[in-house]
Amino acid sequence: MAGTSTSERGAWNSKLGFILAAAGSAVGLGNIWKFPFEVEAGGGAAFVLVYLIFCFILCFPVLITEIAIGRKTQKNAVGAFDSLGFSSWNFIGKLGILSGIIILSFYNVVAGWAFGFFVEMVTGNFQIGSQFSEFTVDIIKIGGYAILFLTTTAIIVSRGISAGIEKAAKILMPTLIIMIVGLLIYAFTLPYSGVGLKYYLIPEFSELNLQTIGGALRQAFFSLSLGMGALITYGSYLSKKENIVSSAALITLFDVGIAFIAGLMLFPIVAYSTGGDMTDVQGGAGLIFTVLPGVFESLGGTLGAIVGGGFFLLLSFAALTSTVSLLEVPVSYIVDEHKKSRKAAVIISAAVIFILGIPSLVGNGYSAFFTQFITYVGADAPTDVMTFLGHLADTFLLLGGLLIVSFTAFVWKKESLYEELSYGYVGFQTSKVKTFLNFAITILCPALLAILFVLVVLSNFFGISIIN
Ligand code: PHE
User: Fold this and answer.
1) CA of 34 to the centre of ligand 1 (A)
2) pTM higher than 0.90 for the full model?
3) DSSP assignments along 240-301, one per residue
4) Is the model's pLDDT at 4 over the cut of 60?
């Protein structure tokens, strides 16, 4: 039975394929576009440290739990809860699908910008950085790039698990690593690279406050693609032979490693662009779209086109393996639960996502309404719709993560999780990992995630900061 359903749904060809696809989901705009400006906003290295701690002690257990639920049930994010016999909990999966759709709606727009910048760089238009605000209101252009990006994503997903998602990850991820290492080496040769590295690597603990801590946690969840069923879905195509714990460890290391290396690469470039003055770093979503093109221009025509084009192509590749995983969540739900073909499911989901992405497409200057979408309590300026959706999704991810571990520990029962983890991991039941997981999923994650969730909501939307 399991055999038939697996072959109809598709399955990973190899453990490496699964790890690359899951790491591909994790490594994305979050690591290369968002991480540096979160670090910048969070005051540098102290933020990085808190982020790393969260990834390993809070996120790693959630990651294991999600993969285990997926593999145990071989079902999508909603069907998994039904299959375990707890249909009343399948709202967690529905919340996850909603989060995934919200994320993809704006994420795809930024991915389109990245690809657009690749085209501009290779054609030698470095001015695009100083024209960023003109670029984001050129609706025809950025709409075209967004459609192109979503279509590419849809084609990969429509080919299925091993022939589509796994194959793309096996090509894109190694290419990405080669490109990032190349750019890293280059960044180290720039003047002021030491200043940038110092800013990035030496913690200023005085900068730590609720905002930074909450920001680090949101970033950790977003970056690891947690709390929305992407890992349940990817886990559902994994064979019983594979060791979930070691796979989750590799995925976490991969993601954290790439985010960390992206910072090592970017801060020297930023320091170069400011002439070594790190008090004056331009933050925000525009950091890599405005600061970097100027640096690439200063390298001169051909070199600038190679380095700049390389950087934005890298960003597009990283984004593509993530948009694929985001689209796979609703697609697998529709295929399993509504018995539609994969192709039909892809078309329906992509169309809905594109339409929902229109506010984000026009919300960066073109439409005043969506650019000044909402003013949070206590804030002095309005927030654009894309940033707002980002905050909303981050909040849902934390809630999803909290619900998934709590469900596992207290409803599905931790013994069932441990049994699933024993497949592919002989000796799990007597391992130290089990002792840690036991503490993490019953006490640490539920308690800390609940507290941090409340604090993040208060500080995000209501401007209330408890620790400062
Ligand atoms: N992890 C991806 C990134 O860092 C974004 C993502 C979030 C993908 C949630 C899937 C699910 O860019």
Assistant:
1) 11
2) yes
3) TTS-HHHHHHHHHHHHHHHHHHHHHHHHHHHHHHTTT-GGG---STTIIIIIHHHHHHHT-H
4) no
